[in-house]
């Protein structure tokens, strides 16, 4: 993938949906969340017309406080998951992403203060002042990806930067984990 990647949420849409584009503006994928499902069921498509399914993300339970969201490829084979760290996620977004050989990566928000300001004051200034940043790190603390909210007036916009080399499967697992985290955090406010 050609980094940085950009995620653009539609602010006015019946079902949560967004597109992911690369540094050249080429579409990487299109994501749509199904409405009125008891369990989360997110589909990741190659194009906006939703003809080619690439991945799906499904919850293991109805209540999402500590739910595990498993990533499936186009052939319905699981290849990773993301799970919110229940109590640790109340103040600061904190998730675990299943890695290769049971190695877990941590996805966490850098600042609680920026999170609160963005949530409770950001709507006054159109999200131009406070920009939460999320870091994905390996078990040894090495950061591998950064997700940053960007200034935007009529859409939610995020930038994903690659900080360390990864395998293709690890890269996709981290990207799907980032997308699921953004969907969950967006629902929380």
Q: How would you sum up this structure, described in words?
A:
- The chain has two helices and twelve strands; from the N terminus they run βββββββββαβββα.
- The chain has one domain: Tubby Protein, Chain A, CATH 3.20.90.
- Strand 6 (68-73) and strand 7 form a beta hairpin.
- It is α+β, with helices and mostly antiparallel strands and 189 residues long.
- The mean pLDDT is 84.
- The chain is globular, with a radius of gyration of 16 Å.
- It has a twelve-stranded antiparallel barrel with strand order 1-2-3-4-5-6-7-8-9-10-11-12.
- InterPro entries: LOR, Tubby-like_C.
Descriptive key words:
single chain, 189 residues, alpha+beta, Tubby Protein, Chain A, twelve-stranded antiparallel beta barrel, LOR, LURP-one-related family protein, Tubby-like_C
Write the layout of secondary structure elements.
Layout: E1 5-10, E2 17-21, E3 27-33, E4 41-45, E5 53-59, E6 68-73, E7 78-84, E8 94-98, E9 104-109, H1 112-120, E10 133-137, E11 143-150, E12 155-162, H2 168-188
Which stretches are low in confidence, meaning pLDDT under 50 for 5 or more residues running? none
For the record, give the distance between the C-alpha atoms at the N and C termini, rounded to a whole number. Answer: 30 Å
How much beta, percentage-wise?
35-45%
Text of the CATH class = Alpha Beta
> What is the global morphology?
globular
- How many helix segments? 2
| Biggest beta-sheet profile | 12 strands, antiparallel, barrel
- Main-sheet strand order equals 1-2-3-4-5-6-7-8-9-10-11-12
Q: What is the count of structural domains?
A: 1
Residues in helices, as a percent range: 10-25%
The topology string of helices and strands comes to: EEEEEEEEEHEEEH
CATH architecture, please?
Alpha-Beta Barrel
Radius of gyration, in Å, reads: 16 Å
Oligomer: single chain
Question: What's the CATH topology label?
Answer: Tubby Protein, Chain A
Mean of all residue-level pLDDT scores: 84
Organism: Candidatus Lokiarchaeum ossiferum
Pfam family, one: LOR
Protein name: LURP-one-related family protein
InterPro entries: LOR, Tubby-like_C
């Amino acid at each position: 993938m050609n980094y940085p990647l950009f995620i653009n949420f539609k602010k006015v849409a019946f079902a949560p949906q967004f597109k992911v584009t690369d540094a050249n503006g080429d579409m990487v994928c299109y994501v749509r969340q199904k409405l009125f499902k008891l369990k989360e069921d997110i589909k990741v498509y190659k194009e906006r017309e939703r003809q080619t399914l690439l991945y799906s993300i499904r919850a293991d339970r109805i209540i999402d406080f500590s739910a595990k969201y498993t990533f499936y490829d186009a052939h319905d084979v699981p290849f990773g998951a993301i799970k919110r760290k229940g109590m640790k996620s109340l103040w600061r977004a904190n998730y675990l992403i299943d890695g290769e050989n049971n190695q877990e990566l941590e996805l966490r928000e850098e600042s609680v203060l920026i999170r609160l300001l963005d949530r409770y004051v950001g709507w006054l200034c159109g999200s131009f002042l406070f920009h939460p940043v999320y870091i994905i790190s390996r078990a040894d603390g090495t950061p591998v990806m950064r997700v940053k909210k960007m200034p935007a007036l009529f859409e939610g916009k995020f930038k994903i930067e690659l900080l360390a080399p990864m395998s293709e499967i690890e890269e996709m697992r981290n990207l799907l984990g980032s997308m699921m985290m953004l969907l969950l955090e967006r629902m929380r406010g």
